[in-house]
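User: Hi! I have a protein structure encoded as tokens and I'd like to know what sequence might fold into it. I'm fairly new to this, so please keep things simple.
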């Protein structure tokens, strides 16, 4: 295989990696599938990624990456011209790592467990409590991150993949209107990133017709 293959679902975090691949200018085959729906697509995904999650990225040569942060760091190595991460040794690099890990290890799991809480608790009050608790935790995390965001990008003058995460994740609950009111810095970063033609095209492909 001489190209990358990105397995994802529309509206999911695969949009972040798809935008990074577009910015990097790498030859990519996109495989969209309803990743929780039983069938051949799900079966193949599970063979490649035992967690059955998207995005899953297959590299030229067949190696598989299953975590978006690892994908972003890999793409930065192979396509530094895309400016997905600050230069090694810089203080901005430290800030980049800090916020990248917080987005993927703290904010992202609130969706993993809160989007379909019945998968973890079964139906009933426990599921409703888990949904409410993850929603509340997410809003707390976003408010904290908003205090660390610069302008016009997360890292101030320097674009990075953090802007892609924000552009996509602010379209998920609690939705853009909430960010406009409670996290204006993040809302502005998302708007700035969406103004980039390649990012805008990816967002349109994933979220066209979805309410904000």
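Assistant: Happy to help. Inverse folding works backwards from shape to sequence: for each of the 212 positions I chose a residue that suits the local structure. Here it is:
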């Amino acid at each position: 295989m001489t190209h990358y293959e990105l397995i994802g679902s529309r509206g999911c975090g695969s949009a972040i990696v798809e935008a990074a691949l577009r910015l990097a200018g790498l030859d990519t085959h996109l495989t969209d599938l309803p990743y929780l729906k039983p069938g051949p697509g799900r079966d193949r995904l599970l063979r490649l990624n035992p967690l059955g999650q998207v995005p899953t990225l297959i590299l030229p040569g067949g190696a598989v990456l299953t975590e978006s942060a690892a994908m972003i760091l890999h793409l930065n190595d192979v396509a530094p011209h895309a400016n997905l991460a600050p230069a090694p040794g810089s203080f901005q690099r430290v800030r980049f790592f800090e916020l990248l890990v917080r987005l993927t290890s703290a904010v992202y799991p609130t969706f993993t467990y809160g989007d379909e809480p019945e998968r973890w608790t079964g139906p009933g009050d426990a599921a409703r409590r888990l949904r409410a608790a993850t929603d509340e935790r997410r809003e707390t995390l976003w408010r904290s991150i908003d205090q660390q965001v610069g302008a016009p990008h997360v890292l101030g003058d320097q674009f990075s993949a953090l802007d892609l995460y924000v552009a996509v994740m602010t379209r998920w609950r609690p939705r853009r209107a909430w960010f406009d009111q409670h996290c204006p810095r993040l809302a502005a970063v998302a708007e700035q990133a969406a103004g980039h033609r390649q990012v805008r095209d990816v967002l349109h492909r994933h979220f066209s017709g979805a309410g904000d």
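A useful reference point when you look it over: The first helix runs from residue 14 to 24. Feel free to ask if any position seems puzzling.
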